[in-house]
Structure formats: C-alpha cells, structure tokens
Amino acid sequence: MRLFLAINLTSDVRRAIIQGTAPLREAAPELGWVDESRLHLTLKFLGEQGDELVAPLGDALDAVARRHRSFGMQVADIGAFPNFRRARVVWIGIHREPRLELLHHDIEVACEGLGFELEGRSFRPHLTLARVRDGTPETTLRALSRAGERIAVDESVEVTSVDLMRSNP
Question: What is the pTM of this model?
C-alpha cells in the first residue's frame, strides 16, 4: 500500500477552499482536479510499504505528537509546480508557520529513524488542487495563471493531528 503522512482539513475548510478556487476550475475544467474530500497537506510521502510498517509509524507519530501542541496555519496564495507556464501541479500554499516547519522536521527525523531517506528538497507546504495533464494547451495555462492571480482564500486551519494515510495509485 502507498502510505503518506498528512494534516487533514475539516469539511468546512475544504468546502471554503473549493468555493474560493472555483475560478480555477472554470478556467481549466479539463485538468485532474482533486475531489474536495481528498484535500490535505502532505507532510511526508512514504511510497509502497508493507503492513508491518504501520505499527512502528504509529509509534513514531505518537512520539512526535507528544512534543507538539496544536497550532493554526493560514491558507495562502495560488501557485503551480514548477510554474504556470510549465505547470504539472496547481496548488494553494500555506503561509510560513514556524511550528509547521518544526513539525515537518520532527517527522522527517522520526521517519529517518525507521529507514526512510530525508527529503532533499526544502519543505513547501501546499494543498494540491489539480494535476495538469500532458498536452494541456498553453492558452489554458495562461488563463489558469490569470485566474489564480485574482483568488484570495482566507482560511485558517487548526492543526491537531498528523494522520497516516493510504492512497490508491
């Protein structure tokens, strides 16, 4: 099973994000838009793993959780990886939050103790909104970029847990 560690959002926050980013879906309906129920903030992707890793991961997450109190994070602006001209992923970011960065660091260290490699890239917290399909016209990407510039979603998320999640490829 493919596993990852994530911060899940309340249904109210997910709904507000979907409503606030509707102009993006209108500008490019052909993209692979993430369903509202699946919006989350991935902290670490663990890849294909066996059942035997679930218990040690749970123990490691519990240990990390004991060192962190709940905190708030704020949804930020719209962007794309690597950029809108060559977009592969459209996202909504999270404002810089030192407690989120510390939580991410502690999760990385805990996972390293279980044999996972440390992430080589810097942490860029975001919620994936859509995946861009091959062959998406440049005009669509420009329209998407323009729509993103006009969007301001002002949602706060209370972080109270990190969840071990399973995804289907």
Answer: 0.93
